[in-house]
Amino acid sequence: MSIIISDAHRRKASKGGSMFKRYLPYILIAPSVIMLLALIAYPLLFSLRSSFYFWNLQMGAEPQAFVGWDNYIQAFRGFDFFPALRNTLFIAFAGTAIEFVLGLAIALLLLRAVPGMNVVRALLILPTTIAPIVAGFLFRYMYNPEAGIITWVMHALGLPVPPEGLLGSPATALLSVMFADIWQWTPFFAIVLYASLLAVPDEIVEAARLDRASAWTILWRIKLPLIKRTAIIIIMLRFMQLFNTFDTVLVLTRGGPGMSSRTIGYSLYEQGMVNFNIGMVSAMTWITVIIINAIIGLYVFFAFRNKEDW
């Protein structure tokens, strides 16, 4: 009888131990998940609630009145929303594409066994370590119409420079902001793509060369498909960052001249930190969240529609 009882206890203890081991990973990760949800979910819900109230901090510390969808309607009717959205989409799409192409070209150059390439690799990462607002100040001086080195180079090459300067002309202000961002973040693409290209098996590349495949064919048919997953992810991350461009706009142009370089990120800053209109900025934030999630959702759908891409 005692043997039967002891066997039952052992089975129960063994079952309890196996259940503990089964749920141990969830127990260990639970505090981090709870903290992450608290840091993300609460601000989102708070801003969602605030978006339905008229709340201006210049009038009081509490929401003044429930206004329903009025903040959303006013955000769409605002004189700066659609110009800012257009500029933001241009910077996000064009900037991401240019940074990816340039980054891929630099990554392919880094693969070559050229003397001094180790130093180049070390220097390449330096721009990404600079705070965007500091990079903005650097380019502000380099864009100076009288003493800026970029202006001087353009004059030396015979390129036209607006009389009011690159940052003072509606035709060049947005492009100047995007150029500063391209300079800073192209190395990010280059380093990540370089690391991915190093992981491409040499045997496959050598076999393609033996079959007399051209360098373009090897890149397009072998290397790019093998680094496709990494490329898709970093493009998505960089697009989301560019969609929230704010620092360089604040330092370089403050959205001007006129609306020519205003972005959604700068409009959010102006409504929240200058006008203190918490209800309006909350509504604009949720409009931005919906837009960027719709774009990223479509991107992920088309990028990963083949099961082998996952």
From TrEMBL:
Cellular component, GO, one term: plasma membrane
Domain ABC transmembrane type-1: residue ranges: 85-299
Pfam families, alphabetized: BPD_transp_1 (PF00528)
Keywords: Cell inner membrane, Cell membrane, Membrane, Transmembrane, Transmembrane helix, Transport
Domain of life of the native organism: Bacteria
Record's subcellular location: Cell inner membrane; Cell membrane
GO biological process terms on file: transmembrane transport
Protein's membrane topology: Multi-pass membrane protein
Record-linked CDD domains: TM_PBP2 (cd06261)
Residue ranges of the TM segments: 23-45, 89-111, 123-143, 182-200, 231-252, 283-304
InterPro entries hit by this protein: MetI-like, MetI-like_sf
Family: Belongs to the binding-protein-dependent transport system permease family.
Name this polypeptide is given: Binding-protein-dependent transport systems inner membrane component
Source organism per UniProt: Sodalis praecaptivus
